[in-house]
Amino acid sequence: MRKGIRPLAIILLIIAVIAAFVLAFFVKGILPGELKRWSDLIFWGIVIIIGGGGALLAGRLCGRR
Questions:
Q1: DSSP H helical segments within the chain, as ranges?
Q2: pLDDT averaged over every residue in the chain
Q3: DSSP 3-state assignment of 35?
Q4: CA–CA gap between residue 28 and residue 42 (Å, rounded)
Q5: Which of 10, 32, 14 minimizes the C-alpha distance to 22?
Q6: Is the distance from CB of 60 to CB of 15 less than 8 angstroms?
Q7: Where are the transmembrane segments (predicted)?
Q8: What is the CA angle 61-57-45, rounded to 5?
Q9: Non-local CB neighbours of 43 within 8 Å, separated by 6+ positions
């Protein structure tokens, strides 16, 4: 029998995405002048990497055993 998605997994996923945006904004703000033209690419790269990592961790922590 299949169970539904656990609420803890959803909460952890939301926290991971919010943390990814906050960290990406922080890193984007401290970039040196030479990297300013790459700031959008760096921002979205950080969001994808940290958000994806958080999603994987949320899945492992709340995964079925």
A1: 7-29, 39-61
A2: 76
A3: helix
A4: 7
A5: 14
A6: no
A7: 7-30, 42-62
A8: 165
A9: 24, 25, 27, 28
pLDDT bucket at 5, cuts 50 / 70 / 90: low
Contact in structure between 36 and 55 (CB atoms under 8 Å)? no
Q: Exposure of 20 by Cβ count < 10 A (0-12 exposed, 13-18 middle, 19+ buried)? A: buried
Structure confidence by residue, pLDDT tens digits, 16-43: 788 878 887 887 777 777 777 777 887 7
Map tokens 């960290």 to a residue.
23
* Residue 58 structure tokens: 């949320």
Give residue 3's pLDDT band: very low, low, confident or very high (50, 70, 90).
Answer: low
